[in-house]
Amino acid sequence: MDANDRRTLLRQTLIGAAEQVIATQGLAALKTRDLARAAGCAVGAIYNVFPDLDTLILTVNLRTLVLFDAAIAGSGEAPGRLPGTEGAVAGLVRLALAYLAFAWEHRLRWQALFDHRMHGREVPDWYRAEQGRLFSYIEAPLARLCPGLTGEERTVRAQSLFSCTHGLVSIGLDERLMPMPRATLAREIEHLVRAMGQGLAAGG
Question: What are the tens digits of pLDDT across the range 136-158?
Answer without folding.
Answer: 999 999 999 999 999 999 999 99
